Amino acid sequence: MSAGAQLSVTDQRRLARHPVDHPVIAEHFRVGDLRLHIANLSAHGFMVDDASESLSRGDRVIIRLPVIGRIEAYVIWCRDNRAGFQFERIIRLDDFLAMIDTLQPNPRLRRSR
Q1: Distance between CA atoms of residues 61 and 107, nearest Å
Q2: Per-residue pLDDT tens digits for 58-84
Q3: In terms of residue numbers, what domain contains 57?
């Protein structure tokens, strides 16, 4: 049995990404707590624009999001100071929409549904 994250990056990147401005504290197994800034979010993952050099592909973090609560995510890619994460599970649509409403109080920023 193989160890580590089972990363699957199929056509999930085509999902709508919602711009957000949300700081989080991520729990990292090796590094400890990391302060990250989520710049965009989809039902399958998120991107941070202030990634630490200590993050690498396959790393697992746990974050807390409004409505969703604690959720695990795996680093899919790192480039410059950005990193993309895939959630360990898909977020239900109604929970995702409620979370976006919380994170994007300005309705002009929200994508049409």
Answers
A1: 30
A2: 999 999 999 999 999 999 999 989 999
A3: 15-100
**Which residues, 6 or more positions from 62, have their beta carbon under 8 angstroms from its beta carbon?**
26, 27, 70, 71, 72, 73
Q: Is residue 2 very low, low, confident or very high in pLDDT (cuts 50, 70, 90)?
A: very low
Per-residue pLDDT tens digits for 7-56: 554 444 556 888 999 999 999 998 899 999 999 999 999 999 988 788 99
Query: Do the Cβ atoms of 87 and 72 come closer than 8 Å?
Result: yes
Residue 105 is assigned to a structural domain of this protein: no
Backbone angles phi, psi at 16, to 5 degrees: -65, 130
| Nearest C-alpha neighbor of 21 from the set 104, 107, 97, 111 | 104
Rounded Cα–Cα distance for residues 52 and 43 (Å) = 23
CA angle 72, 99, 107 (to 5 degrees): 145
Domain count, the chain: 1
Give the single-character DSSP code of 40.
E
